[in-house]
């Protein structure tokens, strides 16, 4: 297979984003700090993130290898998003407008569909139902919920964008493509209702000067998602190219 | 680029990252570094390297897809450039800010795809001459509602077009990833334009959306698909058909897209 050779910024960006703690700090700086409630530095960034040092207490979960591993990776993220929006819909934040109720219900429905579909598609290869930790989210607070939603949606977009090239099967690549554009529609909608900047739906914090959205490696994404997932996700068999 | 080179570049010592005050500084530096990566242009050395791969068997297909994408980006770019420069068309404030952002992305996509095509030894197609009235059917630059309707159709078509081509890029990872990175930007645009029109940001069933002429039905065919990868999704989830169809965007073939786009090529 030919090595990627089109855009050093892209490939170096991916290398940069391969998971480790310092990369995660970079991600936090870019994505978390842009959530709109974080206006003055890092204390807020640290506040929104679950405290480090929390040990996973649940069963470790290997994603597997090859295309199945990538699908289980997607299934991990869809489980996370579905669980989050189920909580949001069950515990509406104070002042949730009718429009926002409809929006949250839609997002919940879509993520549940993604979750249920991936589970069915994976069949016996599907990972278990994961356990989540949303203790860092104040579900009564609009700002906390929407900041988290924005982070999850943008992360989902970057995750699917970065993992498309890992698929061997063009059919599975297409299915991932069918899902990622819906995640991008979500991201734009959440940004649009949450951020005061009217250009945030495709803001310069996520779209570069070539007009490209972000693409993250699985390691990067899973590190960012780890504080919300009680299980330890083992991704070391995932393809890397 | 490895992380330690990044740290060196900004004089960040790894151990410093452990103390909060310097972590704060590190956030700032790393964030800025992310920006400088994002805003870099494609280095000449990389372009030379790609030319060597231009003989590989799949490259003509890749170039074909890239030129197809470029054609669509020309169309979108010119449409929005005309729109934002037509006095009195787009309301000042929020709407103008949105369309200036979308316009910038489409123009950026044109420039990016042009560079990539050249880097693979290909020849970028010339920009067609566009007729955004489609022979007198539309009047987008005199009527903001029509401008929005066509914008919605172009963005939803763009999403479907890139999706339909992704499989053809599967042997050229870097191009595939870049195409996906454009694809999600088009989806963000589509969501925003639809919401500006008072619609949902996603496509329910194969609905064309209130106010959109029936002629635009071609943009939404098969969006009511309920079978994904051989799975009848209605049988595996409690969510109803509306939610299922909203949760998946469907591809269009190149021919279908060119039929839609062809309406606007003079």
TrEMBL record, chain A:
Pfam families: Ferritin_2 (PF13668). SUPFAM superfamilies: Ferritin-like (SSF47240). InterPro entries: Ferritin-like_SF, TAT_signal_bac_arc. This is Secreted protein.
TrEMBL record, chain B:
InterPro entries: Ferritin-like, Ferritin-like_SF. This is Ferritin-like protein. It holds the Pfam family Ferritin_2. Signal peptide: none annotated.
């Amino acid at each position: 297979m030919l090595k990627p050779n089109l855009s050093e910024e892209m490939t170096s960006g991916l290398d940069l984003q391969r998971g480790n703690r310092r990369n995660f700090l970079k991600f936090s700086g870019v994505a978390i700090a842009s959530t709109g409630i974080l206006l003055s530095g890092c204390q807020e960034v640290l506040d929104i993130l679950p405290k480090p040092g929390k040990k996973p207490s649940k069963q470790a979960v290997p994603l597997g290898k090859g295309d199945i591993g990538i699908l289980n990776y997607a299934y991990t993220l869809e489980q996370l998003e579905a669980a989050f929006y189920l909580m949001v819909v069950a515990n509406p934040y104070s002042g949730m407008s009718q429009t926002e109720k409809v929006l949250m219900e839609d997002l919940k429905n879509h993520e549940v569909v993604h979750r249920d579909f991936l589970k069915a598609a994976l069949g016996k290869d599907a990972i278990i139902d994961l356990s989540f930790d949303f203790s860092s989210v104040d579900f009564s607070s609009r700002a906390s919920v929407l900041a988290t939603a924005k982070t999850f949606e943008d992360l989902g977009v970057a995750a699917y964008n970065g993992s498309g090239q890992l698929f061997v099967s063009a059919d599975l690549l297409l299915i991932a493509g069918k899902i990622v554009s819906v995640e991008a529609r979500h991201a734009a909608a959440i940004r649009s209702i949450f951020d005061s900047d009217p250009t945030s739906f495709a803001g310069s914090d996520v779209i570069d000067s070539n007009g490209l959205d972000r693409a993250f490696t699985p390691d990067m994404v899973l590190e960012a998602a780890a504080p919300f997932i009680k299980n330890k996700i083992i991704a070391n068999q995932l393809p890397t190219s | 680029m490895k992380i330690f080179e990044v740290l060196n570049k900004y004089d960040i010592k790894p151990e410093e990252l452990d103390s909060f005050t310097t972590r704060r500084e590190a956030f700032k530096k790393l964030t800025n570094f992310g920006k400088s990566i994002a805003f870099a242009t494609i280095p000449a050395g990389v372009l030379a390297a790609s030319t060597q791969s231009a003989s590989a068997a799949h490259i003509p297909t890749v170039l074909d897809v890239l030129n197809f994408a470029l054609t669509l980006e020309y169309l979108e770019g010119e449409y929005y450039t005309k729109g934002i420069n037509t006095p009195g068309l787009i309301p000042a404030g929020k709407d103008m800010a949105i369309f200036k952002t979308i316009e910038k992305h489409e123009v950026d996509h044109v420039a990016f795809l042009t560079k990539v095509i050249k880097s693979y030894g290909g020849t970028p197609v010339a920009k067609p001459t566009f007729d955004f009235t489609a022979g007198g059917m539309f009047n987008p630059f005199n009527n903001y509602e029509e401008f929005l309707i066509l914008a919605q159709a172009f963005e939803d078509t763009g999403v479907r077009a890139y999706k339909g081509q992704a499989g053809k890029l599967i042997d050229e990872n870097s191009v595939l990833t870049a195409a996906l990175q454009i694809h999600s930007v088009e989806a963000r645009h589509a969501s925003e334009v639809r919401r500006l029109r008072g619609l949902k940001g996603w496509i329910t069933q194969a609905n064309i959306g209130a106010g959109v002429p029936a002629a635009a039905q071609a943009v939404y065919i098969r969006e009511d698909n309920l079978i994904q990868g051989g799975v009848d999704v209605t049988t595996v989830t409690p969510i109803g058909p509306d939610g299922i169809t909203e949760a998946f965007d469907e591809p269009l073939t190149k021919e279908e897209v060119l039929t839609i786009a062809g309406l606007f090529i003079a």
